[in-house]
Structures are given as C-alpha cells and as structure tokens.
Amino acid sequence: MTTTKNSRPRRGRALLALTALIALTLTTLLACVPAGEGQESSRGGPATGQISLLEAIQERGVLRVGMSTFVPWAMRDARDELIGFEIDVARRLAEDMGVEIEFVPTQWSGIIPALLTGRFDMIIGGMGIRPARNLSVNFSIPYDHSGMAIAAHQELAAGFDTLEDFNDPQVVITARIGTTAADAAERTFPKAQHRFFDDESRAVQEILNGRAHALVASAPLPAFQVVENPDRLFLPIQGTFTREPIGFALPKGDVDILNFVNSWITVVEAEGWLAERKAYWFETRDWADQL
Description:
Elements: H1 7-31, H2 53-60, E1 62-67, E2 75-76, E3 82-83, H3 85-97, E4 100-105, H4 111-116, E5 122-123, H5 131-134, E6 138-139, E7 144-146, E8 148-153, E9 172-176, H6 180-188, E10 193-197, H7 200-208, E11 214-218, H8 221-228, E12 233-234, E13 244-246, E14 249-250, H9 255-271, H10 273-283
Parallel strand pairs: 1-4, 1-5, 9-10, 9-11
Antiparallel strand pairs: 2-3, 6-14, 7-13, 8-11, 8-12
C-alpha cells in the first residue's frame, strides 16, 4: 500500500484528539465520586460514611464483651453471676464509656472467629498477645501480664522437681485447648503426651482423677488447685515458667476504638486500680466463699 506524505500527521492528530477525549471523560467521572467513597481511610479507620465501632457502641448503649471462664479471670458464683478479674475490668470499661455491659460466654477455641463475625465488640478474657493471633485481630497495649504454672499429681509425678522431668514420652500433660497454656505445654514438653480439653474444668478433673501427670495453666490456677487438693496435687516448681502480655482483642481496621482502650488502660493503670483488682483476685482467696 502506498502511504502519502500527509497520512502520518493526520493519524497523529486523530490519536491526540482521542487521548484528550478519554482524559476529559475520566476527569468528569471522577468528579462525580465523593472523596473517599468506597475506600479505606489511609489512617486505618472505617470507610467514609461508616461509623466507627466506638460510635456504634455508644449509639447502642451496650458494650458486648466476648469471654470464657478461667479461674480467677472469670467464674460463675453461687448465684450463677459472673465474677472475676476480667469481669471487673470489663464492667469498669463499660462504666467509663457510659454504656451497659453484656457478656457473651464463648468457647475459647472459637472466640476469635466469633469476634470476626460480629458476635461481640471485643474480647476481654485473659488473651495472650501472640503474633499468630495478631494476624486476625488487633491487640490493645497490655493491661496485665500472666505466665504458665504447673501442678503435678502426687503419685504419678512423685520425685519430679524440674521441668525436664515432665519431658518424657511416658508423661501425660493436660491443658485447655487453643490456649497459650496448650502452646507452652507443647513447646516445653515436646516429648510428653498432650491431652487437651475445650473446658478447663475437664483438664483439672483429668489430673485429679490420676489420668495425667501434670496440669499446665495460667497462674494462679495450678497453685489454687494444690491448695484445694493437697492430698492429690503438688507444685513441682514455684512460680511460673513463662511470661506473656495480656491484651484486649479487637476487630481490625478501626483506629478509634483501639485508641480509646489503650488510653483507658493507661489511665486505670496509673490510678493503681488494675494492680488493686489483680491483687484481690490473684493473691488472695477472699472471693472463694462466693463460689
């Protein structure tokens, strides 16, 4: 085909005109979209037009807290009412937010999925801050620190006085499934047999019945069990063999609620209120007659 000397300039002018038309159309369309619509805030907050979780709680007038029973974090008293360190913490948080409190008891193994599906607003349940969990939820700054302790059966573990004594294929370690206690048992005693239960009371019953050499749980539960059952249990080591920070677990993507609970923890810690409540529930048994 023969190309004339003027055909190339004509094609160039047509291409420029088409480009200008496309640019004008895109500019017009973008001008019709409100700023931020359909986009996550660059600061991590909810999309424009959506209220934050903090605002939703205030509008609802109720803070919904996911929790599970752990002695003395959260327990049922003789009247079937919830008591414990975490219960005090959640009630004080709701009071300072100016809202009512609603506790949502949940099996520990499914408590993070329940948070992610919106069954409650946050988890206040002695949850250790762990990187694997942090992939799914946001954590507040620590409001407490816990650690794992071990109680042993008097007959099955007679003569055991070091952690290494329990790291044996003939030894059975019990704990609550899905907890940092179970993680610590697997990590500290990899050679032992691990028998985990979804309910902590079943793990306690396992060692009391002589079907496990040792119970691993957050302090001070093992020590409390030894006090209550001195004829069957003993403490092979004193204190804890791990230390872990404890935080509130929150849904991702909302900076307002995270900022609020972090500030709240800072304030009540500075007041000495957290230390006072922790001492009552973890260092005394003054509450035992309520059970």
